[in-house]
Write a structure and sequence with these properties.
The longest helix has 25 residues. The protein has one domain: Ribonuclease H-like superfamily/Ribonuclease H (Nucleotidyltransferase, domain 5), CATH 3.30.420.10. By secondary structure, the chain is an alpha/beta fold. The strands form two sheets. Strands 3-2-1-4-5 form a five-stranded mixed sheet, with helices on both faces. A two-stranded antiparallel ribbon has the order 6-7.
Length: 183
């Protein structure tokens, strides 16, 4: 499975939802950086705002795009930069699948920590601060780490047929069945 050709994708925004008047204005968040892991090359690609046309081209030609909340977040933020209907892309959104199974949403950190014992290195608000301060290395490394965690989570789910999360109401680690083999 790991040798199949797919890309893992994540974006960081320039602004918060509060900065743009709420989630209804998600297209106005702007992209500070996007990172893609290309399995066929076993390499990461980094795109800044001025380079997003190249990112869209890569995504349009990818056999599968994997991400965590990419349908409701990353694609919607990226849609500001392209007329291409990103919803047409072959996509495996890990959060969307987990949400369908559980009926509620989880954070990437919740699933990654419970499944892989790997926490995220920061959060989206910290990434916005790094962007504002011009701390590109920190910002890119954070986004790269999110992509790596997402890739590892996807591979775990494909191989095992489940992932874990911490159920805060029951204070217990719970399993959620996933079917990412045919994604």
């Amino acid at each position: 499975m790991a040798d199949e050709n797919y890309v893992v994708f994540d974006v960081e925004s320039q602004r918060s939802a509060q900065d743009v008047g709420g989630w209804k204005n998600i297209r106005d968040l702007g992209i500070s950086v996007a990172v893609v892991y290309v399995t066929a090359e076993d390499s990461y690609r980094v795109y800044r705002e001025a380079e997003l046309a190249g990112l869209v081209d890569l995504l349009r030609n990818a056999p599968l795009i994997v991400g965590f909340n990419i349908i409701d977040f990353d694609y919607r933020v990226l849609s500001r930069y392209t007329d291409f209907k990103l919803s047409m892309l072959p996509t495996c959104d890990l959060l969307a699948d987990i949400h369908r199974q559980l009926g509620f949403r989880l954070k990437l950190d919740d699933v990654a920590l419970s499944t892989l014992n790997t926490p995220k290195s920061a959060d989206g608000l910290q990434a916005i601060q790094w962007y504002r301060e011009g701390k590109w290395n920190e910002l890119i490394e954070y986004c790269k780490q999110d992509v790596k965690v997402t890739r590892d989570l996807f591979e775990f789910g494909r191989q095992q047929g489940f992932v874990y999360f911490n159920d805060k109401f029951k204070n217990a680690r719970r399993k959620v069945i996933v079917n990412w083999k045919s994604a």
